[in-house]
C-alpha cells in the first residue's frame, strides 16, 4: 500500500510529463492535459511539461519534488525515463525501471508469464518473410501480428493465410523492434485496471471491427464498454486475481492496465500490460475508477500517491 496523503501541499511541486516522441504522443498530450487539470482542481502545485526528445532538461533547476509521468510508449513507458528520474533522485508515479522495460516488450512479458505458469497465447517471433512457412506450421491461422514494442494497436494486423501473414509482417516491421505472430483468440476482451495493489472493476470491450484497433480505440463510435461487466462475482474476482498476478510477475507497481481475452471455453489469456495507461476522460482506467466510486480527481490523486513508494520496487505485490 502507498502512503496516503491528506494535504495537497505534501505532494510539493509536481511536474506532469506528457507528450514524448513516441507514436502515441498525441494521446499522451490529451491524457496529460486531463491529468494536469485534475491535479490543479485538487489544489496541487502542478505544472504541465510537453516534452519532446529530451524529458530531463525541462526538469533541471525547477524545484520539482515529484513527477506524474503520463508519457505513453517508448521513451516514457519503457524504463528509460524511469532510470533518468532515479538518477536525478526525483520520485515518479507508476512502475520502476525493470517492470517498465519488461512490460513495454510484449515478447519478454510473455516469457515471464510463461515462466510463472500464467496463460498467454502461443506465439512465434518473425525475423522476416522467410519465417512465414514455419509460423503457419507452428501456429496455424488466424494469427495477429504485432510489433513487440508499440502501443495503441499501431502496426498490428490479423492474418488468415500466408499472404496476409506476409502483408501483416511488412506493416509491423517498420517500428524498429521485433515482430511476432500470436494465436488469434476468439472470445471476449477485457481490461483490468490496477491501482495501488488492487484491481478496479473489469471492463469488457466490444467492437464490430476485427479487433480493438486504433480506430476502435480512439475514433469509432461503435465501440461498447461494459463496466461493470455483469460477470458473476466469483468469475470477476478470479480474473482480477489473474491480472494482479500478471503484474506481480513483472514487478509492476503503482498503477497499470492489464489487457486479456477470455476464449469460448472460458479460458483467460493474458495479452499485455500498460504501465502508463491512457488518462483522457474517455480512457479505460478512469472508467473503471468511476465504477469503483472514484472521480477522475480522486484517481489522479491516488496515482500521484504511488510516487511515494520507491525503493525495493517490485518486491511487494503490485
Ligand atoms: N491474441 C489475440 N487474439 C485476438 N485479438 C487480439 C490478440 N492480441 C491482441 N488482440 C487485439 O488487438 C488489440 C491490441 O493488442 P495489444 O496486444 O493489447 O496491443 P496494444 O499495446 O496496441 O494495445 C487488443 O486490444 C485486442 O483487441
Ligand atoms: Mg492493449
UniProtKB/TrEMBL annotation:
<keyword id="KW-0573">Peptidoglycan synthesis</keyword>
<keyword id="KW-0067">ATP-binding</keyword>
<keyword id="KW-0963">Cytoplasm</keyword>
<dbReference type="InterPro" id="IPR013815">
    <property type="entry name" value="ATP_grasp_subdomain_1"/>
</dbReference>
<dbReference type="GO" id="GO:0008716">
    <property type="term" value="F:D-alanine-D-alanine ligase activity"/>
</dbReference>
<keyword id="KW-0436">Ligase</keyword>
<feature type="domain" description="ATP-grasp">
    <location>
        <begin position="110"/>
        <end position="305"/>
    </location>
</feature>
<keyword id="KW-0547">Nucleotide-binding</keyword>
<dbReference type="Pfam" id="PF07478">
    <property type="entry name" value="Dala_Dala_lig_C"/>
</dbReference>
<keyword id="KW-0961">Cell wall biogenesis/degradation</keyword>
<dbReference type="InterPro" id="IPR005905">
    <property type="entry name" value="D_ala_D_ala"/>
</dbReference>
<dbReference type="InterPro" id="IPR000291">
    <property type="entry name" value="D-Ala_lig_Van_CS"/>
</dbReference>
<dbReference type="InterPro" id="IPR011095">
    <property type="entry name" value="Dala_Dala_lig_C"/>
</dbReference>
<comment type="pathway">
    <text>Cell wall biogenesis; peptidoglycan biosynthesis.</text>
</comment>
<dbReference type="InterPro" id="IPR011127">
    <property type="entry name" value="Dala_Dala_lig_N"/>
</dbReference>
<dbReference type="InterPro" id="IPR016185">
    <property type="entry name" value="PreATP-grasp_dom_sf"/>
</dbReference>
<dbReference type="InterPro" id="IPR011761">
    <property type="entry name" value="ATP-grasp"/>
</dbReference>
<keyword id="KW-0133">Cell shape</keyword>
<comment type="function">
    <text>Cell wall formation.</text>
</comment>
<dbReference type="Pfam" id="PF01820">
    <property type="entry name" value="Dala_Dala_lig_N"/>
</dbReference>
<protein>
    <recommendedName>
        <fullName>D-alanine--D-alanine ligase</fullName>
        <ecNumber>6.3.2.4</ecNumber>
    </recommendedName>
</protein>
<comment type="similarity">
    <text>Belongs to the D-alanine--D-alanine ligase family.</text>
</comment>
